[in-house]
Design goal:
The structure holds 2 protein chains of 2 kinds.
Chain A lengths: L2 H13 L17 H8 L6 H12 L9 H4 L3 H4 L9 E2 L6 E2 L1 H12 L10 H12 L15 H12 L9 H5 L6 E2 L2 E2 L10 E3 L4 E3 L1 H11 L10 H13 L9 E3 L1
Parallel strand pairs in A: 5-7
Antiparallel strand pairs in A: 1-2, 3-4, 5-6
Helix pairs in contact in A: 3-7, 6-7, 8-11
Chain B lengths: L4 E5 L3 E2 L4 E9 L20 E8 L2 E7 L9 E7 L4 E9 L4 E10 L1
Parallel strand pairs in B: 2-8
Antiparallel strand pairs in B: 1-3, 3-6, 4-5, 4-7, 7-8
The chains are: A mainly alpha, B mainly beta.
Chain lengths: 253, 108
């Protein structure tokens, strides 16, 4: 390695220091001003089309099973802030579960209906609706107690180099924030806007879909929707973003 | 496939002579045609090709859409509030299907 190469490597290492809690900003700060305004405008943010679908499903009756609204009678009050507490460890099974997982669990166990399936339009709609009820609520996900091992797994995932490009999440999302990666600006990798409407997708997608795109980007293994790896990572990201307001449905490039 | 869904944003009431802005966002994939799906089949073109809006029976807005229009298209336009009446929005899809929504404007 040449002297210049070594100097560059040292500079890159110095840049890759972990971002401290106070400076972490949500993904929307890296959008252009017009896109930020579009995200906040319910008339123009297409994510609200899915929220509407979810709101409809919330009170739709499937056969003899109770509707969502039979139990959650006043979702605007009762479910406000719920999305800000996921992912969390499910007390009954001891497994880490995110908002999508909780909705599916309700549907299968309590409503006795077939699961929608991760990334189905119905589940995205319901997730977007429930998340939208917590718009503006600061993330309050716990990394203590039962969640500790999952948090550690997620943190290790975030810091581990992976893929053909041999990159760890932290190298870009802490070390190179604000710089350009192809046409886009590197963000802190915060999931507060998800499920989000991404222009690239022409539709709404979950955080796990976004993570799969990241994995593909560094030519690493793409894990399944709802996989343990991504759930642990989602928990780590949520704890890292503690105190940031939820902004789903977000608008992203 | 995702269901058709429209979000129409406009004031519920306006003064006579006032100019009102009407904003329309719809959910539609706007398949331009020619892409290959997961099973290797060619996706046929299927877009909303026209939006027409009438206000109290009078046509006030027409928008011809082509394959370059994005999925889930948004459009906004203005009209002058003249009398209390329904605005009727009609989208025409390739293949002849139509979707209709109405919204009432009360003129004071």
């Amino acid at each position: 390695m040449s002297a210049a190469g070594r100097a560059l490597a040292i500079a890159l290492l110095a840049l890759a220091g972990a971002a401290s809690a106070g400076e972490i900003k949500p993904g929307s700060t890296f959008l252009s001003a017009p896109m930020q305004r579009q995200q906040e405008d319910e008339a123009r943010n297409p994510g609200w089309l899915w929220v509407e679908q979810g709101e409809e499903l919330f009170s739709r009756r499937d056969g003899a099973s109770p509707t969502c609204v039979s139990c959650h009678t006043d979702p605007r009050q009762g479910l406000r802030g719920a999305a800000a507490r996921y992912p969390q460890v499910d007390a009954a099974s001891g497994k880490l579960i995110n908002l999508e997982g909780r909705i599916e669990q309700c549907r299968v166990d309590r409503q006795k209906q077939p699961a929608f399936g991760y990334e189905s339009q119905e589940l995205l709609g319901l997730t977007a609706y429930v998340a939208s009820l917590s718009k503006g609520v600061p993330l309050a996900v716990s990394a203590e107690g039962a969640a500790k091992p999952f948090y550690d797994t997620g943190k290790a995932f975030y810091e581990r180099r992976q893929g053909q490009l041999n990159l760890a999440c932290t190298q870009c999302h802490d070390g190179l924030v604000g710089q350009k990666l192809r046409g886009d600006t590197i963000s802190y990798g915060i999931g507060t806007g998800y499920p989000a409407y991404r222009l690239e997708w022409n539709g709404l997608g979950s955080l796990h879909r976004r993570l799969r795109a990241c994995s593909l980007g560094v030519r690493a293994t793409q894990f399944d929707y709802g996989s343990d790896e991504y759930l642990a990572l989602e928990l780590f990201l949520a704890v890292r973003a503690k105190g940031l307001a939820l902004e789903a449905p977000g608008l992203r490039r | 496939m995702a269901s058709f869904n429209a979000r129409i944003t406009m004031p519920a009431e306006a003064k006579a002579g006032e100019i009102v802005e009407i904003r329309v966002l719809v959910r539609h994939p706007m398949d331009r045609g020619g892409q290959v799906d997961a099973e290797g089949r060619i996706v046929p073109r299927k877009i909303l090709n026209r939006l027409t809006v009438t206000y109290a029976g009078e046509p006030v807005f027409r928008y011809d859409m082509h394959t370059g229009v994005s999925a889930n298209p948004f459009v906004s336009f203005t009209t002058r509030a003249v009398e209390t009446g329904d605005l009727t929005f009609e989208w025409r899809e390739d293949g002849g299907a139509t979707f209709t929504r109405t919204a009432r404007l009360v003129v004071t």
